[in-house]
Amino acid sequence: MSGTEERQGSSSVNKEMSFAERQAERMKRLRSLHTARNEARSHNHQEVVAEETRNKLPPNYEAKRRQAEWLLEDQKKREEAALQGKEYDRVKVLNISAIEAERLERKKKKKNPDQGFSTYEQATVRQYNRLVKNMPAADMEQYEKQKQKYGDAFYGGPNVIIHGMHEDRREAVDKMVDDLEGQIAKRAKYSRRRIHNDDADIDYINERNAKFNKKLERFYGDHTAEIKQNLERGTAI
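Below the sequence we write its predicted C-alpha cells.
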C-alpha cells in the first residue's frame, strides 16, 4: 500500500470518529434536555399543588401563623425566665430599645384607643376586649379532657341540656370573684357627675362653655382673681 493510500485511510477513520463523537455529544445534550424538562415539569406540578393549597386557606392564614409562632416563642421564653427565677415582663422590657417600646405603646393604644364614652355599646365592647386580653392562656389539656368527657354535648345545641353537667373549679370561681372585686374597686374610683349648684354664678352660655370656664378657673383662677373682682365691681382700668 502506498503512502497516499495510507493517508486517505487514516483521514477516513478520523472523519468517522469525529462523527461518532459528535453523535454522542448530541445524544448527551438530548438526554440532558429531557432531564431538565422532567425536572421543570415536576417543579411546576409542585408549585400548582402548593398554590391550590394556599388558595384554600383563609386570607389571614399567614398572619395567624406568624402570630402563633410568636406566641409559642414568647411562652417558651416566659417558661425559661420562670425556671431561672426572673420576672419575664421586666426582662423583656430591658431587652428592647426605647424606640421599640414607644412603637409598641402606640400600637397598643391604637388597637384599643380610649375615645371616651360615646355609647353603652362601645363601652361594652371596650370592656369585653380588655377582659379577653387579660385572660390566661388556654389549658388545652383540660380542654381535651372536657371534650372527651361531654362528647356531643361539649358544643351545646338546641336539644342539649348542659345544666348540671359541668362543675366549676374552685380556682376558676376564686379568679372570677377577684376579677369582679377589681372591677368594683376600679369603678368606685371614677369621678361622679357633680351636682348642679343653683346659687352659683352663671358665666357660661352652654355646657361646653361651662366646662371650658371650669378648666380656666382651675389653671388660672389664682392669677386672675383680682382682675375678675375688678370687672365685677366695674373698677377695672
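The mean pLDDT is 78.
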